[in-house]
Amino acid sequence: MSLRTVFEGRPDRRYVMFGGKGGLGKTTLSATSAFWLASHGKRVLLFSVDPQASLSDIFQRDIFGKGPVSIMPNLWAQEVDADRRIRDYQDEIRKKIIDMYGFERVPEEIDNYIAAASAEPAMEESAIFDAVVDIIVQGDYDYYIYDLVPLGHALYYLSMAKVYDEWINKITKLREDMGQYDRVAATMRRQETVEEDKILEELQYIKTRINASSQILTDKRRTAFFFVLVPEDMIILDTRKAAELFARFDVPISGYVVNRVLPPELGRAPSLPPYLRSRISMQEKHLERIRTAFGDQVLAYVPEMERDVTGLPMIERLAERLFGNGR
Amino acid sequence: MAEEKEPKRGGFLGVFRDIVYGMSSHEMTRHAVRTRASMEHLFILITMGDLLGIPILPPYYSLRLLPYVTPQIASWKRRMLRERDITDVLG
Q1: Is A243 a member of any domain?
Q2: Are residues A73 and A93 in the same domain?
Q3: Which of residues 112-141 of A touch B (CB under 8 A)?
Q4: pLDDT band at B57 (very low <50, low <70, confident <90, very high)
Q5: Which helix (H) or strand (E) holds A259?
Q6: Which domain, by its residues, includes A108?
Q7: Per the CB < 8 Å rule, is B60 touching A122?
Q8: N- or C-end of chain A: fewer Cβ atoms within 10 A?
Q9: How many separate domains does chain B show?
Q10: What are the chain B neighbours of A198 within 8 Å (beta carbons)?
Q11: Average pLDDT, stretch B10-36?
Q12: Same domain, residue pair A233 and A99
């Protein structure tokens, strides 16, 4: 199996994630796959929530916090600015309180709470999570490619869907129970109507969104998660551990991509310096380990290019190497 | 409010119905309303516990509910933070 057949053989697949340790080429592979799909007529949104996102770098354009930016026909890229999202969200809550109760300004205690809640580390992560929900539930694109943050964090984001799912189900249940008491009291007093519960409506809205994203992230038919690794000892060990953890959160792992493979023909060059010869023979051993550990789940061995992959022409070259240039 | 019209009740039968309600259902209604109020406070605690320094997950979605509970925050804090004594158990 190859990356190409993985995309061509699964037309239902719409959500693609590339994960792995930092600096191994998640962004490069995300951008290359997005480029290839877009040049085959699919509408693709490539997005990242990493505050140190590198989509701007790889496309050599500043796209941070600007919403989906068109990169080429059919390809859009987006980098989420979590801080701005939190600020906008706080303002939205303040405005709602002022509008609902006709206050001149938000009561100090409430305003302090809004400020304090937003300073918590969990706030940024939840805001990012919600930004991703926003992006994926819209459904405007044929493919959503998620250039994930490094492993530990990525697992945290992915597991959040599950945690929120449980949290929201519990408090919605509590709110529904409260509604029952309202109805009991109303019936006994022979009142005909019970006031609508706005909180319950709000909870149900949040619930639908979280459930939808949780379903998407764990749906094997629609979603694919690819691990990016390089032929190095520690990375192989870490990837194996991470794969076990991800599987526990029902993330559908669809394959592995081995990046930065030194060309094997280099090893046959007659006057090779000992340093390079040693690197290449070490790489051989690691590649063998990767083949044993991941077998036919390895979808591609990506060659180390002669220069950094930045800018569309270089991405196109890598896409040709990775997917072949036939249509 | 004073100017609100009381729904018209039908003579003797209406009075009888009210007496029956007072004897049988009033206590249950009171109980339902009180339970509902306690649950409201529990609900605010679960979603807004941070206001009392109790870390509650996750603040992002709690903020979305904040506008709706804003008027109740003061009474909720009073109830949560007041001292308790034996009359609480008896009450």
Answers
A1: yes
A2: no
A3: 113-114, 116-118, 120, 122-123, 126-127, 129-130
A4: low
A5: strand A253-261
A6: 86-123
A7: yes
A8: C
A9: 1
A10: 68
A11: 81
A12: no
**B50/A122 touch (CB, cutoff 8 Å), yes or no:** no
Domain with residue A252: its CATH number is 3.40.50.300
Asked whether B39 and A76 are in contact (CB, 8 A), the reply is no
Which residue is listed with tokens 């994630």? A17
Question: Considering the domain boundaries, does residue A183 fall inside one?
Answer: no
Count how many residues are written for chain B: 91
ipTM passes above 0.85:
no
Tokens of A70: 């068109």
Residues 6+ apart with CB under 8 A from A309: A28, A31, A32, A58, A315, A318
Residue with tokens 């969990």, as numbered in its chain? A122
Mean pLDDT per 10-residue interval, chain A, length 327 residues: 85 89 91 95 93 88 93 96 91 94 90 85 82 86 89 70 80 88 82 78 86 81 92 93 84 90 84 89 94 91 89 93 71
Distance to chain A for B39, nearest Cα, Å? 7
Q: What's phi and psi for A172, nearest 5 deg?
A: -65, -40
